[in-house]
Every structure is written in C-alpha cells, then in structure tokens.
Amino acid sequence: MKNSASLTVEPIGFVHCAKQLKFEAPHQPDSGSGETNTIVLLPGKQFEFALEDLAGFDRIWLVWWFDKNKTWRPRAMPPRGPAKRRGVFATRSPHRPNPIGLTCVPLISVDGLTLTVGALDLMDGTPILDIKPYLSTVDAFPESSLGWVGEVEELIAASPRFEIQISPLAAQQLEWLRANWNIEFAETAFAKLAIDPMPHRTRRILRIEDRYRIACGPWRMYYRVVSQTVVIDEIQKGYSDESLVLPGHEKIIDREAQIEFAKTNFSGTV
Hints:
Helix content is about 20%, strand content about 25%. It has about 270 residues and is an alpha+beta fold. It has two domains: about 15-150, Elongation Factor Tu (Ef-tu), domain 3 (Beta Barrel), CATH 2.40.30; about 165-265, 2-Layer Sandwich (YaeB-like fold). A hairpin with a 2-residue loop joins strand 12 (about 220-225) and strand 13 (about 230-235). The radius of gyration is 21 Å and the shape is globular.
C-alpha cells in the first residue's frame, strides 16, 4: 500500500462562542464556568441524520482544526511549569505537524443541526472536523501516569499562590472597559498571574524595567511583584494611536474602544 502524500479534510461545522481572541480561550475547558456554546453543522450534507441518537450522551469528543496556526515546531514550551521545551507530541501545543485538536465537552442538547455544549477551549469560528461520543468505560483511565505534566502539577500545587492587588487606576480602567464596551479580560489574566507572574514566552509576559507586562489580546496589563503579591498598576492599549487610524486597520479587535480609551482621562480614583 502506498503512503498518501496528502489528505483532504473538510469542516462539518463551526463553533459559535464569545471567545474572539486566543487569550480568551483557556488551555483546557473550564468545567466550572457554567458557559454554554453552540456548534452549527453545515446544511445539505445529511448531518441531521448523522446526529441521530447523539442526544443520549452526556459528553462528546470534538475533533477540530487549529485554523489560526500556520506553522509547527518539533519542540514546544508549555505555558505551565518551568520554561523548558518539550517534544511537541508530549504536549498539547497548538503548533503541530497537522493542526488537529481534540476536546471533550458536555453535550447539553441537539436541535436540528445545532449542538449546544458546555465549556470550550476553542475560539469563535473554529472548524469542526468530526464528533464522537465520549464513553467513560473506554475513554477514561484515571490511574494513568501523567508523565512530566504530573510533575508540573505537583510543583504548582506545592507552590504558594500569589495574591492579586489592583490599584485604583487599574480598577477604574477595567470598570470603564467593562461598563462601556463589555470588554473583560482581567479574570483570565489574574488566574494566570496568581499561579506564576514571572516572564514566560507562551504566557506573553515580559519584564520592562522595574515592572512586568502581560499581553491580554489587544490590551496590556502592567504590574509589579512584591513578595507574594502581584500589584496591578495600570491597563494600556496594545496599539499605537497611529496604527489605530491607518487605512486597512479597521479590523483591529477593540479598535474603537482603544481609540476612546486613549481620549479618556482616568483619575485613578474609584
């Protein structure tokens, strides 16, 4: 049998959810979030028949495509634990030879070509390649070794978490973004910083002079680390005033909010 030089796959549907940025998508689904999302399959493909009998399962596997990634790396740096590269096949890095993802999600309902599901680690518009039922009798191996991941989880569990302290200025800026533009990224950033606020490439944390900066999609959060406390100093936009008004940049995420943010005089009092 000859090895095929290439394979052709086509999406069977797409994810519809609130996550527009990679920063907003967790590394694993947050089962405690209570969120609901939908997957809409394509019409005219007889998928309504393919979905028959699926509603009786509590969970399903989603096979999907990392459509935002164009390259892969043989060794990846996981976002948790020491800044150490691992063989990509020993990680769940999105940068893979074939950018295929696998996620297990709660199935809430099936209505025609629309599946309502629970928490996802996917972005809006992610192509779905296949759907399979989760079978606890054959898909679960709770006693299996977690390899290097188990070592990292033990290290994280043993390490004290950092307390998050928000300055009046940062609090005012975050409330302005939430109230005026429904932009919320602080909790995601706080969860990352509470575990480890130190510079890390995959967490997009950099040290800048005497403080640190974490990139939160198109926004930037500046902070200091004092003992076991992360002090959030301020929020800044991620794009310059010039880039926000250049022709062709209308598609920048939160562009209008960033323009208005630059015009707002934040007093630093709440």
